[in-house]
Records
---
Amino acid sequence: MLNWTPTADHAPLYYAKAQGWYEQAGINLSIEAGRGSAASAQRVGAGGAQVGIADLPTAMQARSKGADLKAVMVIYANSPQGFYWRKSAGIGSPRDFVGRKIGNPPGDAARLMWPAFAKKVGIDPSSVTFVNLSPQAKVAALKSKSVDIISDFYNEHDMKVRDFGDDLGFVAWRDVGVNVYGNSLVVNGAYLDAKPEVVHQFTATTQRAYEVCVKDFEPCLKALTDAASGLNPDNLRDQWGRIKQLMRDDTTTQVALGAFSPERVKADYDLVQSLIGLDKPLDPATLFTNEYLDTSVRMPAD
């Protein structure tokens, strides 16, 4: 289960499926569109899907509520989250968000993580109003002034620059000190216990696909657009350029593409626990594993 509808960051999955790699690994894979990280984490945690993509802090929150899942590969080593606004609305920085309307989907990771962002920039988390929007409606809502701010992934940054030009305001969460791990592959815990070799095959195959797409995106782009209609290839190419930046950190370049740093997971856990809260405390080391990754596969340093 994806975190959202298919887009550039999911292209490696479609490429590996089109190449028959999952089938060769003994996996009959179906790919379902998602409705946000919270929905994906809940679905995987309940066993409704064996594997999904979810923002890691959202998966932490789901685990604290009883969801049975574990992360096996990180896609975004850096947070993709950002806020966008029109400068002409009188917003110069996040401190001007007070009293404003933020448009985003109800299952969006940005909404769940909002208290952490708000406290980092020094405003009351309750000082804004959230407006429910579908992912496809965000830009239109900002243009029509029905909302003042939208949350979105950095992937789509180039499209917004074209739409808003010099009137575009933007802040990346990672630049204000909320650089938590983003989208990750999460696996149902009971399924992992019962079929560790299948999970190993799935993870290694997916890691290999991301490696191929980092080297040459065009075959992956074709696989994605063949499987999902209505996508703009030029926009997807722009997205992938941004995604590669988000995939790269010291761990993914020096340990393995998709590997988690235990220290960073612990820091993310501490941030979520202190600024947002968790229903039940967890051992951060139990939230993830790197054991199914091929350490010979590394993210390029540039």
---
Amino acid sequence: MSQVGQATARALLRRLAVEQAECRVPSLTAAIVRDGRTAWFGGRGRVGDQQPTPATQYRIGSITKSMVAVVVMRLRDEGVLDLNDPLERHLPGTQVGHLTIGQLMSHTAGLTAEPPTDWWERTPGIPAHDLLDRLGGPELKHRPGRRFHYSNVGFALLGELVGRLRGTTWLKALRAEVLDPLGMHDTTPRPRPPHATGYAVHPYADVVLAEPEHDADAMGPAGQLWSTPHDLARWAAFLSGHTSGVLPAATLAEMREPIGVDDGHTWTGGFGLGLQLSRARGRRLAGHTGSMPGFLATVWADPDEDTGVLFMANTTSGLTGALTDDLLDILHEYEPRLPDEWQPAPADPGLLALTGLWHWGPKPYVLSLLPDRGLALEPVGGRGRASRFVAQDDGTWLGLDGYYAGETLKVAPDHLDLNTFIFTRDPYDPAAPLPGGPGDWLA
């Protein structure tokens, strides 16, 4: 199973083999996804007496959250809920009902990380009604919206929300709306053969200890699922944009927008709506990590490159944390993408006349054309507010990003009106309707 060249495959396999050997992992699998298909798979170690394959199951832990989040976004797109809705509007009877769905999705609700139970990852779960009854004031650790604070409990609540709104269980809704449409038929709540056993590796000896595995019940949406490298590669393709109609591209892009920062002042990692985000080695990645007793897994997607990467391991701890980035580096070094060929494209003469130099007061900007009648406004020299705009049916343009995201650009013959800011061809052009009135330039 490889679409990469022999030299690339060898380099990728060596990096995987080094991780498995030096980190003493019982078994380790990894895959690269490109253009929506698995381009490379590798497996090292043993599951029983066999090497792991793309069909070997591993527990994926919190990657489950990203899948549950997709069902929540489908409900939002259908108009069943709004992300600003308080939880109690759809899930009454809990003491944390004032928290919003969007805050729970982005881990900004201030809710406790772990449930008020025994160590939930290692013990049988409790029913949802029991968990809801236990949640109260002590489980609120921060003012809602104040900061990022990862919460497994938040996704337990979201799973219960999904189940009630769909009139079924979160798992059945996920199966019908996400897993089956994506062909992820080997992603299940409990292990099926062939599957890896979860192990803890002794820190000072080459021996292992089997870790427990249970049905997490109410906490299931936070980390219950098992999957395979084959299925997780399909999930990476989905996150890269191959959605198979499960979500509109715009909704998936919204999930990838950063809302919270989870690593302090360095700001290299964050969280969107159910998706972890990472800025690593010049890449903007979206996906999720996962850990449960005896298992580690990670899946990342780079939508700009239409590339994904994943690993699955049956160890509680010990990996370097650099494997996925290193695999992407190897792919880029050995088989970098060629840029798309430039080709001339027709342009509306009226829009073509708008291109070129404009001024916000004395500061020069350049307006250029994008596909489908889009516009880009960028400061000369690169320092200042830059945004892209998409054409609207009423003749205006809507900001897509940057400072002017969501704002309206209106075009007049002698000026641009960008949410009351006036851009003119000449600095403070006296012919334009400039608020305050331009004076004379002084020597």
